[in-house]
């Protein structure tokens, strides 16, 4: 004698009646052997951890220390190769340049500073 999966209850009988009624309705809803496929968006979001680096940005560096005195571009501007984008000023540089110029202009400076040593030309 076969065993049923569900015991004989009013809920089982209602389920069977529902299946008997709905099964023929689903078969007549479409033509036999036809299938309708329609595109629909499917949400497929996943959490990931990553570092995003732009290929259109780069770090700007200077050869000297100082303060940015003038900025000629704003964020988002396209910059062609060789364009000056900022001016960096160091208040010590003009003083150092003046001191070097004074040493060069002083009469006999080369003879005094280089006596007894080999002379280096720059």
TrEMBL record:
It comes from the Bacteria. Gene3D superfamilies: 2.40.50.100. Keywords: Signal. InterPro entries: Single_hybrid_motif. Residues 1-29 form the signal peptide. This is Biotin/lipoyl-binding protein.
